[in-house]
Structure formats: C-alpha cells, structure tokens
C-alpha cells in the first residue's frame, strides 16, 4: 500500500502529535521492498518521519477507525485507507521502535490524513519493537 502514496502530498490538518503547526507532508517510499516510507514536512525540511505499514510487523494489529474520523477524511471504503506507524530510530537500528498507539490514517484517494490515539484498552504502546525477532546470525537477541 505504501507505493500508492509515493510522491503524494498529504494534509494532516495539524493532527500529528507534537507537530501541530505542520500540515502538509510529502510521502516517499525509501526502500526497494517498499516496506519503509518517509514523511517530509513541506513546511519545514528539517521535520520528517520514517514510517512503515504496521501490519507488516504486527499482522494481528487491529483497531477500528471511528465514524467521525472516516467522515473527517472522506473515507467511503476500506480500500481508500492506508495505515502507517511512526518509527523511533535507535542506535543500533535493530533497537528501533514503532508507535502502535497512535497510527496515522490516510485516505489515499484525496490525500487527507490524521493521527489518532487508540484507547488505553487497546494494549498497544508507543514503543513496540520494530524487529520482534532477529535472525541468530545478526548477533542481536530477538524479543
């Protein structure tokens, strides 16, 4: 789904937590496998986020997009929806985390997006491991 967003401008309407003064972000796919994307602020080039489709890492990730969010984004069908999660980069990269508590919801048809915060009962955190299991030859211990 990330390839559908490549080179599109997305209006988050000031909904990205901690970055409310920034509205428009340009999306770019950043790897050949199309797993990772980058959201670059169109208002300030020093603001950007590495992102991923969270379902690739957490296939059991599930939540419901509320009706008011669907209306705000003009979502008419599930095919219009892209969900991405912001990655917090760590050193080494294998220690990086994924924000599952506050995903970004994007209508791929009209370029509108918003960040939502899931209820506490969801059991998701802002710092879930990006790499749940690492191969033994990596020298790192998996979670």
UniProtKB/TrEMBL annotation:
InterPro entries: Flagellar_assembly_factor_FliW, Flagellar_assmbl_FliW_dom_sf. SUPFAM superfamilies: BH3618-like. Its main location: cytoplasm. One of its GO terms (biological process) is regulation of translation. GO terms for cellular component: cytoplasm. Interacts with translational regulator CsrA and flagellin(s). Acts as an anti-CsrA protein, binds CsrA and prevents it from repressing translation of its target genes, one of which is flagellin. Binds to flagellin and participates in the assembly of the flagellum. This is Flagellar assembly factor FliW. The gene is fliW.
